[in-house]
Amino acid sequence: MLSWSITFLVVALIAAVLGFGGIAGTAAGIAKVLFLVFLVLFVLSFIVGRRPRV
User: Residues 40-51: what's their mean pLDDT?
Assistant: First the structure.
């Protein structure tokens, strides 16, 4: 998930440098959403993995 986020961030940066504002904005938005999903899943897996076994 993090690799997709970084990929879309790179695409957004390249598109911004080349002057494609719409594509850059869309790719940056997708990168933000994917990064937030990654963070939520990471925190959930960290919390669930730290529970003591019963």
Answer: 89
